[in-house]
Amino acid sequence: MVAPLEGSGVDRRSDSVDAGIRRAPEAVRAEHDSARAANGAVVPTAAPESATPATTRPPATAGAAESEVHDPRAIGDDVLPDADPITRVFGIRHHGPGSARSLRLALESFRPDTILIEGPADADNLVQYIADEGMEPPVALLGYLPDQPARAAFWPYAVFSPEWQALRYAAEHEVPVRFCDLPASAALATGSEPGDRVDPLARLAYAAGYDDAERWWDAVVESNTDTDIFDPLTEAMAALREEPEALDDHTLRREAYMRQTMRKALKAGARRLAVVCGAWHAPALAGPLGPAAPDARLLKGLPKVKTALTWVPWTHSRLAAASGYGAGVDSPGWYHHLFTAGEQPIARWLTKVAGVLRAHDLPVSSAHVIESVRLAETLATLRQRPLAGLSEVTEAVRSVMCGGDETMVRVVTTKLVVGEALGTVPEHAPTVPLAADLRARVRRLRMKTEPTARTVDLDLRKERERERSHLLHRLRLLGIDWGTPTESETGNTGTFRETWTLRWRPEFAVSIIEASRWGTTLRTAAEAKILDVADRDDRTLAEVSAALEQALLADLGDATPGLIARLASVAALDHDITHLLAALPALVRTLRYGDVRGTDTAALTHVADGMLVRICAGLPGAVTGLDAEAAAQLRGQIDAAHLAIHTLDDTRATAAWLDALHRLANRPDVHGALVGRAVRLLCDAGLIEDAESARRLAAALSVGATAAAKAAWVDGFLGGRGLLLVHDRDLLRLIDSWLAALDDDQFLETLPALRRTFGAFESGERRAIGRAVQDAAPTAEQTALDIERGRVAMRTVAEILGVPV
């Protein structure tokens, strides 16, 4: 995955002309030695005074430097007809609210007639959507290979991103604007992403007494709205770029492309050109551009691939560094607040924090807010900072509002510091047909694509909610897990209700593009994919059965006949009882859901009946010669099949299944875990009396079998049913006596199996069993009645009921 936007406050992936060229390969270094001289970069030996451009600062170090002779008459006014073109380079911090404010003020003052912005040059045709009412940041440019959508890159923008503010300025003032970085076709072709290196800002932060570059930037730069910040920042970057390992080849090519784009803009008639780029690039773009030949040679032979670009919604959480597709902003919610709050940002922020904490039942009053503001400002003063930053505010919240509770501090971080804002893009923006179909269906079904997790209950008896279920299941078939099935909080287990947890993620945009190869609508794409998956030769019976169930849940009627035919053919050729058992539960669920969803399941019933007949006939003979692992796997399949068959409510099917279990339970050569489980299931079904089950347990624990075999029988019989031992004291005494009779070696041999058995019980069940053993479970002969105490209790009950004694 190429991630074109830098992950830190300064772009360290760019390619610029610099002294770092000493470490570049010979071919690249030779080109850039000439480029530095031609472009007027600072060189070790002083140039003759007559050769120095007419400017008061070195052209290679001026952050808002003029690329041609500076004409003071032009600043803030229209350029005179005979004046030279003026180029100003604004080095910004990506996603920095202070940089965004300063840039907006600088653009208002400079009033450019052309703006170039760092970004993929082949996305120029998407700039037109910036002014659309449906465009709401955070959004991202998505570039991908049409034939390999997984190879994609994102260029995210938030409202506090300087690039976004430049785009908005251009739209509001009708100024031509273009992107000037390497096109996505080149970025995706090379996939270049240099490895980790030392953050150049860290040295500036260390010199200023900060141990964290981000805190230094926030305190010194982000709190500054002065337009003059660009000049000293560019000078600092120029000094850092002199480090031997500061630059890499990819950065040098990017900056060469930026200069070429600047030349084209000036040649096209730009008189007041503004260039907005990462601060790291500014020294390479400021000053005279010089001849284009060195840059052209550097870009010659640059590989390219066919790409497509579009706008996609983004979220604040994806801007965060820990989110995978992030852009290196640890606190996007905080930055958004700083950019939009206006006056008194600290007080307004802490008011929001108080609201979040109150929503979590914390008693936060106005006094807490006032005291938190005072503490944050005091901390900033003690630390000699111009205003309180996020660290001071967080410490104030932790101490005053949360009382030192880190859990609530993390809640504030998630809800506010990072935030979950989700942007929107215009409906008529370029997209694949599948995405358009999804957008239309979401709008028609009145669903919301929200970045926060939300649980919804769907009543499948209602048409709209049934269609919502179909939509979510189709998306899951296509690998787009917008919704995840969850257990209902109200405990609904019927087939007419589903519970989903919905959460939209920005990367679904790539998944939708990948899924578009299957079809242009959700229905056709899901049908094509599931049929393709089921038709593969390596598909097992369980997988085909699961695919059929998914198709039914997604209402893929056109795919159902083909899947049923495929299931019948695979089932006819599969003689493995374990495969049939594994496929049966999904098949039974499909039959059940078919009744609710109005699906014709006659053909499927025929297949299920045939499978059940073969299972019942072959099960007793398929359970011999199994080791412990195979027996445990088969036991799980028997449990699932038992539950599925009972949900069918088919008397004949249930009788055939129980008969098969009875034959299994009577086999002496079967693993104890399977026999114990069969006895338990038959006892639950009422075919074996409690006394008979106790007799079988006693026989299994008698002399002859190994201790491990006895433990396996107990595990199969009791597994998941701890209440049996609580209520059946005879059974408890039987197992207790067996355990007490084990010698040390036998006990150690059975301990793992018994620990697994009792560990599966609920904690309350284990405590009840312990109390029963401790109390020695009194028998009926030991029970005595206290007549006098009973009379007192009876009188009290009679008074409550109003019955005369």
UniProtKB/TrEMBL annotation:
Comp. bias (Low complexity): 44-65
Biased composition (Basic and acidic residues): 9-20, 26-35, 67-76
Source taxonomy: Bacteria, Bacillati, Actinomycetota, Actinomycetes, Mycobacteriales
Name recorded for this polypeptide: Uncharacterized protein
Disordered: annotated span: 1-20, 26-80
Domain of life the protein comes from: Bacteria
